[in-house]
Amino acid sequence: MSKIAPCLWFAKEAEEAVNFYVSIVPDSRIKHIQKNVGDSPGGKDGSVLVVDFVLAGQSFMALNGGTPMDYTHAISFKIDCADQAEVDHLWDGLSAGGQTEQCGWLRDRYGVSWQIVPTVLTQLLGDPDRAKAQRVMQAMLGMVKLDIAGLKKAYDGG
Length: 158
Fold this sequence. Notes:
Residues 3-117 form the PhnB-like domain. This protein is α/β, with parallel strands linked by helices.
């Protein structure tokens, strides 16, 4: 496991957000919940301070910092998806109560940015035939949720 783990800042909803994430992303679990040992900016004595968790094998930490903070697209979490069923599952789950955006991006209900990307996209965009790759890029730019069949159709010239 990596020594580096992203920390997500929440005002008071860290445990709620983590439960949401682990219910949607396969190979995910809560490792540990640390409670406040006294009153702190993150909450009262005994309330949740930190949640250590794993999403798809990657360690994360969620912190109740007490003060709302805004997330930006400067940091997002990309999930590689093997097929359209996985794209659909993660897209539908993570976007519920959030906001969908262009090119496979979404913001979840907590404002965290995600990229739900079919693994085949890298292959299609990296094709040495620039015309094929450019058609894929144009198709992707016109999509919100990425559609593998549509990307492959553009690649094939359709």
